[in-house]
Amino acid sequence: xxxxxxDGKKIAKQITEGLKKKVAALQxxxxxxxxxxxxxxxxxxxxxxxxxxxxxxxxxxxxVKKELPEETSEKELLKLVAELNADPRIHGILVQLPLxxxxxxxxxxxxxxxxxxxxxxxxxxxxxxxxxEKTIESCTPxxxxxxxKSTGIEIAGKNAVVVGxxxxxxKPVAALLLNENATVTxxxxxxxxxxxxxxxxxxxxxxxxxxxxxTGDMLKKGAVVIDVGTNRLEDGKLHGDVDFESAEKVAGFLxxxxxxxxxxxxxxxxxxxxxxxxx
Length: 279
What we know:
CATH class of the largest domain: Alpha Beta
Number of helices: 10
Order of helices and strands: EHEHEHEHHHEHEHEEEEHEH
Number of strands: 11
Distance between the termini: 45 Å
CATH superfamily of the largest domain: NAD(P)-binding Rossmann-like Domain
Number of domains: 2
Radius of gyration: 19 Å
Strand content: 15-25%
CATH architecture of the largest domain: 3-Layer(aba) Sandwich
Largest sheet: 6 strands, parallel
């Protein structure tokens, strides 16, 4: 029997519809406020920023979009972040990555007030996540956990393998799985015999940016497979890090690309912004 497809669009819509109702019920002028900052004209960043702005309008949020030229200095960007930190109408600040090479991502992310860090990348929020304390969780990892839970599969006690160790997805999603009482293995480019780890995995999260790296013959029968990859190939289409056709024959549950993790990232960003506003 082919894998059940986990519909990220449907689950994301449920989250955003709930938020829309909450915002509509607010009294007076109070609204969740999100500021999105983009430096340069990276096409993917332009697309992401526009989709976030559109979602803010749809939900009735207060939205600010700051588009800065590529040559913006680090000092100028840090000054803008400080202004947004001080703005009471702004509850969430997102600086779109990647930044131009002359700007330190670490410095900029650390400059955002932890209470307004709706991307969950501030060192303080990542530290709280590792300590299993209440914090703002990174949007994509938070969405991944929601997708896994939507299957009805109990995470506690399961073997989970995360392929990829980035600060944006791999490490935080491993921490969240650990907090859900899974037994977690992180695999990466230096892992020997990746298949032997995957064959033991009840839950697989793949976030490496390499099209069709994981094939069905590498997976355990019935595994929950979450594909975070978005690789645009020569055919112009988006392809995941998992070979969908072969994985579908083996996995129990599988996310598509597109329509799986992507919509959840924006929904969780909106949820984080609302929670920052409400706290």
